[in-house]
């Protein structure tokens, strides 16, 4: 599922600060001078610049979201005639990832986009590239220090939890549900991203006077989701709502719900897979919404690496440089707006 033209498409998933700015909004023929204290837009970032080579490294595609990361990066690089794209073999072995990126550093590529298996363990590699004069766009899993990257772009894990909590709480209020039982199926509990998602969910519910009820952690796989959901459903004879952190593991969660014959509650997913969005569109399961953590961020990372390597900024921003940090917003996808987001979904 190649994602062409995500320079514009990713804006709908929350990369507005980065990508809306990639093209000027000045109408053709508009020669009006900028207001005092403002600067004229920098122009069309899609226009060809000097040729650059962008290296890319990410983990192996053992998960639908990761698979989409690699596809999106390659598709976006293909949009630019001035970009030579040099990916290295994806791997879940940190030592192998370090060795592969070192080859790109030795080739003196113009920029690197790195989604590290582990941000902490690859921080020294990012610093080495930066010290060699190769700007690094750090994708999602962040390095330990800004000295290891020129720009970071990634999703908002805390914001995912907030979006899920707000949707659930508002829907329960509309139904006048008092003292609701709200379940949560998390990802891997010892990961900071899972902890951030859960904290955002808890905080959002608390702002409505609600709290998280039965909660169990899975492992971001369909098999783990099915096993954990079956256990949670057995322990909770009543549920009003359920948030599942990840749409890949949500395949198993939905299977467990159907096997248990439960339909008294509604569910919210996480990440924004096309499978989940198709179920939301069909409206024939308990899944009524998902909150995005879109792999289109890889498309954006390639676009940003190109601009940094060409020493260009974002067209609609006054500053001459690409920002140092860009956090994507987590959109809430429901039956009302699923048509807008479905083309950006990834296959679980």
Distance between the termini: 12 Å
* Cα gyration radius (Å): 21 Å
What oligomeric state is this?
Answer: single chain
Mean pLDDT: 89
Percent of residues in helices comes to 25-40%
| CATH uppermost class of the largest domain | Alpha Beta
Number of structural units classed as domains: 2
Signal peptide: 1-20
Family: Belongs to the bacterial solute-binding protein 2 family.
Organism: Pseudonocardia eucalypti
Protein name: Substrate-binding domain-containing protein
List the keywords.
elongated; 12 helices; Rossmann fold; alpha/beta; 6-stranded mixed beta sheet; 38% helix; 348 residues; 2 domains
Descriptive notes:
Keywords: Signal. The structure is a single chain. The chain is of the alpha/beta class and 348 residues long. The protein has two domains: 13-18 and 46-155 and 295-312, Rossmann fold (3-Layer(aba) Sandwich); 157-292, Response regulator (Rossmann fold, 3-Layer(aba) Sandwich). It contains twelve helices and twelve strands. The chain has helices at residues 6-9, 16-19, 64-77, 94-106, 123-131, 157-174, 192-206, 222-235, 247-260, 274-282, 297-309, 338-341, and strands spanning 52-57, 83-87, 111-114, 136-139, 151-154, 182-186, 215-217, 241-244, 266-271, 287-292, 325-327, 332-334. The strands form two sheets. The chain has a six-stranded parallel beta sheet, sandwiched between helices. Helix 6 (157-174) runs parallel beside helix 7 (192-206). The longest helix has 18 residues, at 157-174.
């Amino acid at each position: 599922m190649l994602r062409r033209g995500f320079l514009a498409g990713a804006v709908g998933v929350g990369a507005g600060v980065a990508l809306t700015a990639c093209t000027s909004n000045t109408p053709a023929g508009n020669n009006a001078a900028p207001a005092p204290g403002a600067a004229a837009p920098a122009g069309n970032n899609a226009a060809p610049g000097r040729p650059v080579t962008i290296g890319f490294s990410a983990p192996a595609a053992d998960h639908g979201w990761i698979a989409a990361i690699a596809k999106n990066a390659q598709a976006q690089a293909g949009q630019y005639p001035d970009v030579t794209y040099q990916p290295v073999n994806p791997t879940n072995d940190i030592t192998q990832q370090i060795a592969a990126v070192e080859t790109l550093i030795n080739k003196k590529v113009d920029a690197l986009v790195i989604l590290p298996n582990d941000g902490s363990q690859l921080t020294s590699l990012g610093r080495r590239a930066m010290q060699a004069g190769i700007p690094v766009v750090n994708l999602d899993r962040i390095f330990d220090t800004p000295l290891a990257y020129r720009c970071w772009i990634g999703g908002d894990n805390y914001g995912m939890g907030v979006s899920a909590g707000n949707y659930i709480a508002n829907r329960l209020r509309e139904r006048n549900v008092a003292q609701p039982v709200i379940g949560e199926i998390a990802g891997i509990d010892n990961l900071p991203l899972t902890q951030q998602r859960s904290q955002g969910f808890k905080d959002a519910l608390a702002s409505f006077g609600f709290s998280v009820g039965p909660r169990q952690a899975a492992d971001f796989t369909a098999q783990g989701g099915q096993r954990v959901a079956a256990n949670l459903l057995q322990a909770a004879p009543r549920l009003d709502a359920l948030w599942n952190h990840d749409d890949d593991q949500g395949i198993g969660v939905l299977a467990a719900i159907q096997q248990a014959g439960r339909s008294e509650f509604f569910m919210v997913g996480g990440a924004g897979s096309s499978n989940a969005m198709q179920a939301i569109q069909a409206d024939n399961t308990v899944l009524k919404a998902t909150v995005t953590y879109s792999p289109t961020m890889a498309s954006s990372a390639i676009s940003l690496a190109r601009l940094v390597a060409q020493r260009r900024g974002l067209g609609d921003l006054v500053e001459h440089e690409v920002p140092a940090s860009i956090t994507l917003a987590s959109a809430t996808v429901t039956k009302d707006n699923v048509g807008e987001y479905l083309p950006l979904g990834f296959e679980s």
